[in-house]
Design goal:
Elements lengths: L12 H15 L5 H7 L10 H10 L14 H25 L3 E2 L2 E2 L1 H5 L1 H20 L3 H22 L9 H27 L3 H28 L2 H4 L5 H5 L4 H8 L3 H9 L6 H13 L2 H20 L6 H11 L12 H6 L1
Antiparallel strand pairs: 1-2
Helix pairs in contact: 1-4, 3-4, 3-8, 3-16, 4-6, 4-8, 6-7, 7-8, 8-9, 9-15, 12-15, 15-16
Length: 343
Amino acid sequence: MAPLSPLQARSSANDDLARVESALRAAAVTGDEFLTEVTSHLIPAGGKRLRPAFVIASALALDRDGAAPEAVTDEMVRGGVAVELVHLGSLYHDDVMDDAETRRGIEAVNHRWGNLKAILAGDFLLAKASELAASLGTEVAALLAATIGRLCEGQVRELQLIYDRGRTEDQYFLAIQGKTAELYATSCRIGGLVGGVDGETLDRLTRFGLAYGMAFQIVDDVLDLVATDEELGKPSGNDLREGVYTLPVIRMLADGQATSETLRDLLGEPLDDERRDRARAMIVDGPEIATSVETAQSYVTQALEDLAPLDASPAVVGLRAAASNLLGTLPPISPGARAASAS
């Protein structure tokens, strides 16, 4: 099940996102026909468009009549497109680093046209995002530029620890904050700025977005271990293969039990399918999946606490529901065979 959109309380949610989609396609058009083909490649493949939805919902947070279609302004749509372009550009670059073959169920840009073209197309999308942000004012432009920088920092933190079996939880949380959570926080903050909310509400929305983004990435990392290729739209277990050790893996490696040593012997280098599947089965069989989900839930709780003082406008109802239902994207999680046998 896909994450719930924060626009779900708006009767015009489909029309809102259709406006985003149209503007997104227009923003990917360049002066060169081939470059336009490359920059537009992933857009028709879909995507949840969660970040633009968070922009719009945050912009309408204080509007008790925010269920009306006309409540969504062109500036809100433009802010949503800007953050989505940053997300798309980061996907292009991520797929180059991961040597990915598929993305969203279709051929990845790097696999189809090569790494150099994928990098340049990703750069164009980031530049276009900055251009749109600049049209919304200097504060939005500076915010988005800083967010792109933090995204790069988060990715570098992760790359520095590829195949590192000593990666710590603190290092993991710092990396996912930069590469994922900061863009959700920025989406909410840009929405608040464009919507003209007061300073306290703006900070609450920003903290909400950050906590939601942390939970979102932990859930995404768990899904990489427990979901199928078809459910993910990309190869499952890829983090293990590529040496990106996420929260459940970090916790199993650190628990000091015999299973930890067996897993440690498997990891630390690129894995073939057989070793990846062995490592993945061990992790899924242990309690670390469940404890990671509990950590994600703690971030969801924090996100909901940040919104608690806000009145229940349609947008705030949608934001709360998006956070509350995030863990519902996971299949049923048992505490694992090792946990059961220890009780």
